[in-house]
Amino acid sequence: MQVIQDLFHQHGYYVLFFGLLLEFIALPFPGETTMAFAGYLSYEGIFQWEWLVLLAFLGTTIGMTITYFIGYFVGMPFVKKYGKWVFLSPEKIDKTKFWFDKYGYALIFIGYFIPGVRHFTGYFSGIVRLPFRKFAFFCYTGALFWVLLFIWIGKLFGPQWEAMFHLFERYAKIGVVVLAVLVLLYVCVRYRKPIIKWVRQLARSKNSKSIK
Hints:
The chain is an all-alpha fold.
């Protein structure tokens, strides 16, 4: 924490941008802790939370995009050979592959909350040649949610941010699943008419094809 405080004292807002960018290239940086502490500094009136969110979001998405294109153009052999220089061990590669096989594209979104996985999801998405639009959708929406969540932990809970941060870390996976279900329910209720219409059209289309 002392190192993080010194970094903010010396470099201000840019700690989030460059720190998170480097983290997603897989260099050691405590991104979640730094964002929560930045939120606390916003609570204290030292920083504006809007700028914190913007710079954290840009650092995260630019870092992830860089790793996607590295994976896309150089492939797995290069990453396996030189990954050790950016702390991408074979264990992390295998772990990411396991989670990717389990959750598919959604891993890019939820991977932000899985330690040791989020640093490689960009590389892996490029290696398997995931279409960039699909990658960008999951990557950027996940990044915005991840950034907002941890900065708001610090801003909302103020001096108690560390206790809430560790509580969320402990139950992160459960929290993400619950939140995803709530978002899905909200979307279904909010857009139920268009969804019902789309399902009916899809059913009619399938029935017409089966008759033919």
